[in-house]
Amino acid sequence: MESSINAMASKYTNVDFDKIDVDDLSDVAQEFGVQAMPMFLLLKQVKEVERVVGAKR
């Protein structure tokens, strides 16, 4: 998945792509309700727009 995310980050330069390690940032994972990985959370102006759990390229 990482190569796909990197490709999107290169293509969509006006979008911020961030990756967190839920083991290191468990408080952030808890704040956003991470229950499975991978999980993609799309935010716009600090509000959740979409949540995708699981991976399909």
From TrEMBL:
Provenance organism: Capsicum annuum (Capsicum pepper)
Source species, domain of life: Eukaryota
Domain Thioredoxin: 1-56
Name of the protein in its database record: Thioredoxin H2
Coiled-coil intervals: none
InterPro entries tied to this protein: Thioredoxin-like_sf, Thioredoxin_domain, Thioredoxin_H-type-like
